[in-house]
């Protein structure tokens, strides 16, 4: 089986900044998840309520980081490459990032300047 790679970009250049959060999640999931499943995944990364209908360009950098993590979760890659995932994440959001990495069953390559 061929490996699928999920890439966390610290500059969020993979997003269409005019799209809504929900549209990004639909695209990331390949349109294979229900709206309920996408909302549940987003809530696990602290994205809920009105945020789901906001355009990506209106999100804080931390929220964009959480959106990126949610997209990776929905993509279900076998390999994660994470370029500075803690750069924009608020300290309150670090547990969500840690849970995501800990529960990931594939290989992880993580670049960070944090200790």
Describe this structure in words.
By secondary structure, the protein is of the alpha/beta class. The chain has helices at residues 21-28, 35-44, 61-75, 94-103, and strands at residues 5-8, 79-83, 107-111. Strand 2 (79-83), helix 4 (94-103) and strand 3 (107-111) form a beta-alpha-beta unit. Helix 1 (21-28) packs parallel to helix 3 and helix 2 (35-44) crosses helix 3. The radius of gyration is 13 Å and the shape is globular.
Write the layout of secondary structure elements.
Layout: E1 5-8, H1 21-28, H2 35-44, H3 61-75, E2 79-83, H4 94-103, E3 107-111
Parallel strand pairs: 1-2, 2-3
Helix content: 25-40%
Structural class: alpha/beta
Give the radius of gyration.
Answer: 13 Å
The description of the largest β-sheet is:
3 strands, parallel
> How many distinct helices?
4
Mean pLDDT: 92
What is the rounded distance between the termini? 34 Å
Low-confidence stretches: none
Oligomerization state: single chain
Question: Order of strands across the biggest sheet?
Answer: 1-2-3
* Sequence of secondary-structure elements: EHHHEHE
Approximate shape: globular
Q: Count the strands?
A: 3
What percent of residues are in strands? 5-15%
